[in-house]
Every structure is written in C-alpha cells, then in structure tokens.
Amino acid sequence: MPWFFARISAHKFCIYTMKLITFKQNNTEDNNTEDNASEDSRYRIGALVSGDQIVDLTSLASSGNLTADELLKCFDLESGFTDKAESAINNSGGLNFPIIHRRTVEIAAPVPRPGKIICIGLNYRNHAIESGMEIPKTPIVFSKFSNCAVGANHPILLPKASSQVDFEAELSFVIGRRAKNVKKENALEYVFGYTNFNDVSARDLQFADGQWQRGKSCETFAPMGEFIATKDEIKDPHNLRIQFRLNGETLQDSTTNELIFKIPELIEFLSQFITLEPGDVIATGTPPGVGFARKPPVFLKDGDLAEVEIEGLGILSNPVRSED
Questions:
Q1: By the 8 A CB rule, do 219 and 157 touch?
Q2: Residue 38: band (very low, low, confident or very high) from pLDDT cuts 50, 70, 90
Q3: Do 93 and 177 lie in a common domain?
Q4: Cβ(252)–Cβ(292) under 8 Å?
Q5: What is the pLDDT of residues 67-87, one digit of tens each?
Q6: Residue 320: pLDDT above 80?
Q7: What is the pLDDT, as a whole number, of residue 9?
Q8: What is the mean pLDDT of residues 138-159?
Q9: What is the 3-state secondary structure (H, E, C) of the chain?
Q10: Other CB atoms closer than 10 Å to residue 176's CB: what's the count?
Q11: Residues 301, 320, 54, CA angle at the centre, nearest 5°?
C-alpha cells in the first residue's frame, strides 16, 4: 500500500494513505517556459495531506510539468509511479519534495483529460423507479466526451440551449490497468482508486434526442474530484454514504450498497466490449432525488452551489454559472 506523509513540523511527518490530487501551480517562475506555453502542459500531481497541504510528487513522473496525456501514466499501476512515490517518501521522510498549501494552487480534475468517461445509467433501483424506467437487467452504458471534465471549484456552465440542467451525484472509479475480458472475481485488481463525480445532464436535450450523448456532454458536464483516493484507502466502495446538496440543501442521500451492478460486475461487463485503459473514469450511476423527478422539478440555475459528498472522498463543490 502506498503511504504518504503530512508535515507536523519541519522534520517530523505522520503517515497517511494516498489521496492523489492534480493541480496547476500559480505564479511560479516556470510558467513562462516553453513547457508551460500550452494550458494543457501545466499540470502537476501530488498527495493531499493534512487537509490543506500537498506533497508535490511531479518530479517522480517528469523533470517538468505534465500534459494531460502524460498524467495518464501516473494512473497506470504498471508504471511504478506509486511504488516510486512510496519508496522516495519513506527513504527521505518527504523532505526532498516541495510542500504546497492547497490555497495557493488551482485544483484540476484528478484526471484532466480521461481517455474515456464511461457512465452507467439507472444503476440505483429507486432512481430507475423515479425516472419511470424498468429496472435494468444489464448495465445501461453511455459516455461523456473527455473534454467535459472539470475539477472542484470550477464552474458548471449552463448552456444557452438548455433550461433544464440537472445534477447527479455519483461514485466513480479510475482504471489502473489495461483491462480486456476481465472476470469479476479479479476485477478490483484493475481499479486505481475512487473519486466523486457529478453527472450533470441537460434533461431537455437528453429527452428530445431519445439518446443521451448531447444532453450529457455539454462543456463542464463532468465535474470530478477533488482527489482520487487510492483503492487501499476505501475498504468497501459498496458501503459509502453518497449525498448531493444544492445551496446547502440535501437533495440526494443514499448509500452505494444500493447499486444494482457493483464495480466488479461493471468491469467484467464493460471489458467484454471495450478495452479499459489507465486513467479511464467510470461513473457508477446516481441514487434517487435528481431534479427532474421532483415535484416541482429542480434544475440548476446561475448562482447555485452544487456539492457531491461521498464518505471517504471529501466534497466536490462547483459553482453554477450561465454560459454568458
């Protein structure tokens, strides 16, 4: 299991399990270098410790900043990144790595540009019922475009073409090994970790099309984070409280033990048809309480604050803004 350290004093650390966080460092001298000429090449990766501090581990993956594509290698369990991080911090006490306060950086999506964002629909029985749909006999699969991903505190943008933008709190997991034709008994070996996810959905576009791609894939419609908790940190992903709050009011409150298809079943099913790759993000579905099923309906509006909280995974908080 990878272990990381939170600073207690200048020379003393205590042990924490890993919460990987992706960020952009503000106001640094190297922001004007060629490596940082592109917005996509400014990512850094670290371990979130003590709630407010980040141990910057980027040097274990690169001599400079990382592109979104280069970051994907950090989520490959075969790349040795987590092993190197464990060894380096254990051997040095963490003193060879910069310690950064989270308030001084811009938090990005944990996986800023996933190769695939795969979502599972109607995977909570009560959500299927409130949606007026039959309980699925096999997983219902759809996708979001990878450039929908945004991190915590980034705004969810309401597109001009929609007046019915909805929320869906979801547990998602990140793939850590190339997976094809995996059996469910071995499926968790292919999981890198877990993170909060909000499956933002333009219901008027979704229902008008008769399929879900456009309504699910508007810009900023895949908020995730703040961090990825490595697999060892979450003892049982199927026994976590999951909540959604809108402006402080709890609208969804359930547990992941209500999932119809558990994570091993999803990996077995998906890997029959799709080669899953490190850094792919799979959202497992939402519990009941979504906006369109309420009477009267509740949709996101400019100025709102949307929060997803899952036990052990912190809070994913995003302001809501008009696209204008």
A1: yes
A2: low
A3: no
A4: no
A5: 999 999 999 999 999 888 777
A6: yes
A7: 32
A8: 97
A9: CCEEEEEEECCEEEEEECEEEEEEECCCHHHHCHHHCCHHHCEEEEEEECCCEEEECHHHCCCCCECHHHHHHHHCCCCCHHHHHHHHHHHHCCCCCCEEEHHHEEECCCCCCCCCEEEEECCEHHHHHHCCCCCCCCCEEEEECHHHEECCCCCEEECCCCCCEECCEEEEEEECCCECCCCHHHHHHHEEEEEEEECCEEHHHHHHHCCCHHHHCCCCCEEECCCEEEHHHCCCCCCCEEEEEECCEEEEEEEHHHECCCHHHHHHHHHCCCCECCCCEEECCCCCCCHHHCCCCCCCCCCCEEEEEECCCCEEEEEEEECC
A10: 26
A11: 160
How high does pLDDT run on average in the chain?
88
* Structural domain contains residue 112: no
* Residue 193 forms part of a structural domain: yes
Indicate whether 205 and 56 sit together in one domain.
no
One domain, residues 64 and 93: yes
Domain hosting residue 46, numbered range = 3-107
Same structural domain, 67 and 136:
no
Give me the half-sphere count of Cα atoms (radius 13 Å) on the Cβ side of residue 289: 18
For the cut 80, the answer to whether the pLDDT of residue 88 exceeds it is no
Tell whether the model's pLDDT for residue 96 goes beyond 90. no
pLDDT at 10 over 80: no
